[in-house]
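Researcher: Next sequence.
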Amino acid sequence: MPKNEKENFGSSIDTIIPFDPKTFNKNVSVVKNTCRGKDIDEVRLLQDWIWNEKEQKLYIRHAGFALIVKRYDNKGNFLNSGPMFIRCVDFK
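Model: Next structure:
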């Protein structure tokens, strides 16, 4: 991964355009989303559990992972937590 991608990993800029329901004027605002290593709260592993009836064995296949982050509003109040992204393994 290139250095500039590593430095901005998990960061993005979103444009939000809500409309006033009375005047129909649009209110454009730009939101900068940043994520640092300390923002990652936990890592969830995604697995497939497969029971092989013939062998009477349980197989566990690691299917991917998700980095879980806490989200806050502009005033620093906790909103929720959830995956920053989910990375799945490409099985061929």
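Model: The chain has a mean pLDDT of 81. Residues 19 and 26 are 4 Å apart (CA to CA).
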